[in-house]
Amino acid sequence: QVQLVESGGGVVQPGRSLRLSCTASDFSFTNHGMHWVRQAPGKGLEWVAVISHDGSNKYYADSVKGRFTISRDNSMKTLYLQINSLRTDDTAVYYCARGRGYCGGSSCPLEGYWGQGTLVAVSS
Amino acid sequence: DIQMTQSPSSLSAFVGDRVTITCQASQDIDKYLNWYQQKPGKAPKLLIYDASNLETGVPSRFSGSGSGTHFSFTISSLQPEDIATYYCQQQVNLLITFGQGTRLEIK
Fold first, then answer.
1. Which of A36, A56, A110, A111 to mutate to test the interface with B (most CBs of B within 10 A)?
2. Per-residue pLDDT tens for A66-88?
């Protein structure tokens, strides 16, 4: 049973940093690209970033470029999202999700495997 | 970025009704469109991938069609457990975008 478990969320002051983690189990983590998707309270889904299977390719939504960094540790089967200079509009539930295949080319389709999400609340 | 325009934003129907949601892409996305169901407090659940393929385990009353820029999602006979918000999502390239969602309610 494929499982993705996010952690690292919490209440953080504006301007601070946070690192989210997503631990994978029961599938070959090194064979899949991975995504982060977020959802602000009461709002729709917003794609955040994607990383290829080996970490060599990374792409970001314009809204987070320069402040967010996606990375992975395949030995630990863990995906990360480093969020710097947090703003109140970063408040959201952050989901990790599996991509279809290596994702080293021009697309990385989302598959039906998502974590349960971790809430980041930015507030002074 | 590719914009996804989903309609309607909300919908109310009777149990047993046929329900259709549409999604229009701002440019050609071929067949690279997913449909999700999301219930409050839960992660999105993939129902349809590549425009018309039913995800494993999803009831056959759910279906999708379309290609290029116009897509539709249909529930053939609405059930009480289908109450949720539905999203389309394109993935023709690495910059994925979602529609704004359709909130589905029972009359």
1. A110
2. 999 999 999 999 999 999 999 99
